[in-house]
Amino acid sequence: MTDKTDKRRRRAPKEDLELPEDYPLRHTMASQMHVELVVNDDAGVWVLHDQPFPAILHWAEYDEENNELTFITHDGKIQDLGMKIPNDIGDILLDADEICAMYMKDGKVQDIGIVPIMVRDTVFH
After folding, report:
1. The pTM is what?
2. Which residues are registered as beta bridge partners of 46?
3. Fewest beta carbons less than 10 Å away: which of 20, 32, 74, 76?
4. C-alpha angle 110/115/117, rounded to 5°?
């Protein structure tokens, strides 16, 4: 038998919760800034964002089973994009080698970072 208290403990922390500096997870990108995922048929992938990232990105991981895109920073922190990836875009991510992250401000590119993308394949075929 489960009570309300047990259910609350299993929920993810609220986005406005202050995380300790040494905590390995960051709030999702979509909760901290405006982000858009853009792809083309040639497996080009761009993440456009309107705020600088809190740390330098090291690589990205696409989880095909959960349709999630996650970024890992040079200091080992993990930050999810914060939106489910539609299957048709996921198919393009499966073929991609890298993601271009573009920090945009007032319609102009402020910074660009290119990181490799890896597929976390836990789906049994």
Report:
1. 0.76
2. 38, 100
3. 20
4. 135
